[in-house]
Write a structure and sequence with these properties.
- By secondary structure, the chain is mainly β.
- The protein has one domain: TonB-dependent receptor, beta-barrel domain (Maltoporin, Chain A, Beta Barrel).
- The chain has five helices and 45 strands.
- The strands form ten sheets. It has a 22-stranded antiparallel β-barrel. Strands 5-11-12-9-10 form a five-stranded mixed beta sheet. It has a three-stranded antiparallel beta sheet with strand order 6-7-8.
- Strand 33 and strand 34 form a beta hairpin.
- It is globular.
Length: about 750
């Protein structure tokens, strides 16, 4: 039987797609290869200027990014510092075919890689690994980035290696590892929005050659960028406090124990959507629609913030882990144990479009909304792998995850006395009486077994096969206090599972050239909607809405090339891919029943490609560029067959970035630094109906400063979105928008303890 991804290679339609894709990549590559250059460099012993060799660990072993048979964008510690990467958005902007929609709420965002997207209320399709520890939740992904040594963004399905919810790819982050040398840094900064920050790290040997320790921390406070025109204050205040500690024990060359602890608190917005279905003119508020197609639903309509209550959110997170490595003559045994505890609150206007508490709205009363989220998780992973210096390499392992989640969402009547925060029960408090309370407790258990083999046929060819089986059982218990929807006290159970294979062939005709072909499958686990939502939807004539969103499955094939030219001063990477998705998860807000739900788009086709180039032009000038495009099509959608043939939602049709970095001595001890880049995100739809698209974005960033020649200190001024482009970072069908900030700038001073 021929699978849906393999099948296109047999019929003529895919031949045409590949032909057009190759033509497009060629047209991009030819002019860039002539005129566009890149980033980080080093000098050889002979004094020739060459690109820095970047190592990656995406296949759980260290290897050159040039030789790795996968599409990966990697950043070294120096690249991270030069680019001023302090947030996830910063390295995403430099990665082709990857976008991030930052949303209302504290640290909430939705990642998309090659058309595989994260949606509201859904789980991420991208595995995140920090210091070798797989993060089980997308919530762990957000926050300020600091003391980071490397970042890898791997594109394409990685389920065979990292399991469930890795259909889009993987992001691998390694923080600084302490050594025998005492080292660290301190950094202070300030910027617009009344922002100030301080961060630092210090580490080294506690007992030489045996015990190593490190502690690092970050504090950032900002009044905000967006004005709340109703209250006359900033609407997006943000505060981040994070502290990390790391302790490494290495009694000999064959054993190590890596202990990690991190605690963070994020404070900011709650649930801050602005609703476009109401026309606000001076003191006249007129309801003109609610729901798709009934109001001025335009993803390009950037509204002012007009909350009449203080919008507030808070997230507290604790991460603990220990990684043990035993190296023997037969192979290496790795044990990874982790514990995570997360609590999150969100308080806001339910409908922040009224000028005052007494103003009329589309429902006849003003409302508030609160959300509460409590999550606790335990993971255990065991792996045994062969020595890395043999032609036949192998690995076997097992994984276990137990996690419990309680979530509640409540609405109340806004009486002008603020918002009463609710957690596990409703209230009849006259200041904010509860009108609806939806809550459930989820107990989830996942386990997996996996293995892989990699065989070097000869100096030019090698083949690899990875296979993983994942199973997840989810059980939902509805709160006995829930009303008015659903069945209070109901218990529901579902199981999701899949075999996830990955096959890779690599051909290296020369030391500096690498061709690869991969086939992979992956899945994203299904999950429960609000209990009783299917019955409510059926009552208003909606079909295809279920209490359980089904699992998402994908098949993908990729052809890639990597090469270095011009005496290792020019590096080129290119790839084309085709992906078939069944049950793509999609978020909908249905105004007629006031419900947030996950549904499944039955079949989606994705194909596209990317190309990136880096070039060392002179000893002072680096140039870089990257382009990616993704074509999507909804092939089948039972809920709304009229959407078949439309673009899939949340997918930018293309991404492009180009920039330069210039660094030159001013004196014997001082260097001048200048960096600029341009980012373009193509047009994208936010709904299956393709009712409205956000136009392409053009964003300009720059950094300028001076630094010591020995690397001991630097002072850098940075500006982001310098053209002050106004746009919505998120938009939900029906006209609910989350506004992005405009121009951002800051100045930071850093001192390194060398």
């Amino acid at each position: 039987m021929v699978g849906p991804v393999v099948r296109p290679f047999i019929d003529g339609s895919f031949h045409m797609r590949i032909s057009n894709t190759l033509k497009g990549l060629t047209l991009v590559a030819l002019p860039l290869a002539v005129s566009v250059p890149a980033v980080s460099q080093e000098s050889s012993e002979e004094g020739a200027l060459v690109l820095e060799e970047v190592l990656v660990t995406a296949r759980r072993r260290s290897e050159s990014a040039l030789e790795a048979p996968l599409s990966v964008t990697a950043f070294s510690a120096q690249m991270i510092q030069d680019a001023g990467i302090q947030r996830v958005e910063d390295f995403v902007a430099l990665t082709p075919n990857v976008t991030l929609a930052t949303s209302q709420g504290i640290g909430t965002s939705f990642l998309s890689i090659r058309g595989i997207t994260q949606v509201r209320n859904g789980e991420s399709p991208v595995a995140t690994i920090v210091d070798g520890v797989l993060q089980f939740s997308a919530i762990q992904f957000r926050g300020e980035m600091f003391d980071v040594d490397s970042i890898e963004v791997v594109k394409g399905p990685q389920g065979a290696i990292y399991g469930r919810n890795a259909t889009g790819g993987a992001i691998i982050i390694n923080t600084h590892r302490p050594t025998n040398e005492t080292e660290g840094y301190v950094q202070v900064g300030g910027g617009n929005g009344d922002e100030y920050s301080v961060q630092g790290s210090i580490g080294g040997a506690l007992v030489k050659d045996r015990w190593y320790g490190q502690i690092s921390g970050n504090y950032l406070e900002r009044e905000g960028y967006l004005n709340n025109i109703t209250r006359g204050e900033k609407a997006d205040r943000f505060e981040d406090e994070t502290i990390r500690a790391r302790l490494i024990f290495e009694p000999n060359e064959s054993f190590s124990a890596d202990f990690r602890a991190a605690n963070s608190t994020h404070k900011g917005r709650g649930i801050g959507f602005q609703f476009q279905g109401v026309d606000i003119a001076a003191d006249n508020i007129t309801a003109i629609g609610f729901g798709p197609g009934t109001g001025p639903s335009d993803a390009n309509n950037v509204l002012p913030v007009r909350d009449n209550n203080v919008d507030y959110g808070e997230r507290d997170m604790l991460d603990l882990s220990v990684k043990l490595d035993w190296e023997t003559s037969a192979g290496t045994l790795v044990s990874i144990t982790s514990y995570t505890d997360i609590e999150e609150w969100a308080d806001s206007d339910q409908f922040p479009y009224t000028n005052a508490q007494s103003s009329p709205d589309v429902f006849g009363f003003d409302g508030t909304q609160t959300g509460f989220f409590d999550l606790e998780a335990f993971t255990q992973e065991l792996r045994f792998s062969s020595p890395s210096d043999q032609r036949l390499k192998w690995e076997v392992g097992a994984y276990y995850l137990q996690w419990d989640r309680f979530v509640s969402l409540s609405t109340g009547v806004d009486t002008g006395q603020g918002i009463i925060r609710l957690e596990e029960s409703p209230t009849n408090d006259p200041r904010n009486p509860t009108t609806s309370f939806l809550a459930d407790d989820n107990e989830n258990t996942s386990w997996a077994v996996f293995g892989s083999i990699d065989y070097e046929l000869n100096e030019a060819w090698d083949l690899s096969l990875a296979l993983r089986y994942d199973e997840e059982e989810r059980e939902q218990t509805v709160s006995p206090l829930q009303f008015p929807a659903g069945e209070p006290g109901a218990r529901n159970k579902s199981t999701f599972d899949k075999w996830q294979p990955k096959l890779t062939a690599r051909y290296q005709p020369t030391e500096n050239q690498n061709w690869y072909l991969t086939y992979g499958e992956g899945f994203r686990s299904g999950q429960f909607n609000q209990n009783g939502i299917s019955e409510i939807a059926a009552g208003v004539g909606l079909v295809g809405v279920t209490d359980v969103a089904d699992q998402e499955e994908s098949e993908s094939i990729e052809l890639g090339y990597k090469g270095q030219f011009l005496d290792d001063r020019l590096r080129l990477g290119a790839a084309i891919f085709s992906t078939e998705v069944e049950g793509q998860q999609f978020f909908s807000f249905i105004g007629s029943i006031s419900a947030q739900i996950l549904t499944n788009i039955d079949e989606v086709s994705l194909y596209g490609g990317e190309i990136d180039l880096v070039y060392r032009a002179t000893d002072s000038l680096d140039l870089f560029a990257a382009y990616g495009f993704t074509d999507s099509e909804i092939d089948k959608y039972v809920v709304d067959p009229s959407a078949e043939g439309n673009d899939a939602p949340y997918i930018a049709e293309d991404t492009f970035n180009i920039g330069f970095q210039y660094q030159t001595p001013i004196t014997d001890n001082l260097e001048f630094f200048l960096r600029g880049d341009y980012e373009r995100r193509g047009e994208q739809f936010w709904d299956v109906e393709n009712s409205t698209a956000r136009d392409a974005l053009d964003l300009f960033n720059a950094r300028i400063g001076v630094r010591a020649s020995d690397g001991s200190w630097e002072i850098i001024a940075s500006g982001y979105n310098l053209s002050d482009e106004e746009y919505n970072s998120e938009w939900v069908a029906g006209g609910f928008s989350a506004r992005a900030p405009g121009e951002i700038y800051n100045v930071k001073f850093r001192y390194n303890f060398l």
